[in-house]
Amino acid sequence: xxxxxxxxxxxxxxxxxxxxxPDPVGFKIFMKLIPMALIIMFAAMTSSxxxxxxxxxxxxxxxxxxxxxxxxxxxLAGLVTFFIGHLFYIFAFKSANRKRVPIWAAILLAFYGVxxxxxxxxxxxxxxxxxxxxxxxxxxxxxxTMGWMAIRTRMALAITGALxxxxxxxxxxxxxxxxxxxxxxxxxxxxxxxxxxxIAASIGSRIVKYSVNRNNLIR
Length: 219
Hints:
The chain is mainly α. It is 76% helix and 2% strand. The protein has one domain (2-218).
C-alpha cells in the first residue's frame, strides 16, 4: 500500500507541477494539496522505528506545511505557517538527536545562512522593507536550525529531506526577491514534494543505540 501511495504522490505531483494552469487559483491550490495529503497518508502508514513521538510530530509538521501550501499565495501568511511547520520538524529531529554536527557541515550551514541573510534579507532592508527583512531573517534561522537538527539525527532520509527543503525555499526566495529563475515552479515543487516524502519516510528509519557496554548492541 505504501508503494501505491508513493506512486500516487509522484503522479499527482507531476500533474500539478506540469499540467495545472495558474488559473483558476482555487483549483490550482486544491490540486497542490493533493500530493501533501497523500504524503501525510504515507507517513501515517509508515511503521515508526524511531519513536511514536517522532512520528506524531512529523505528521503534525506535514499537516501544517499542507496548510501553508494553501495560504502561500498570501506571502507573509504562508511564511509564518511554514515557519511553524519547520518548528515541528525541529522538535521531531531533536527527539532523535544522536551526534554532533561535523565541523565541515557546520561551516557549510553557517556560510549558507550568512550568504542568504546578506543577499535576501539585506535586499529588503536596502529597500526599506524592515518588517519583511526581519521575517526573512527569522525564517532563515529556523531553516538552518532544521537542517542542523536533521544532521544530528544521522538519519539519511531526514537529512536528505531537510536539505531538499532548504534548496526549495532558497530557489523560491531568490526568484521572488533577487532574480527570475527559469522553470522556478518545477525546481521549487519537485524538491519540495521530494523533501516532504523523505521527511515522512524518515519515520521508518532505524535508530541504533549503544548501552554502556559498547559490545552490547541494542536496536
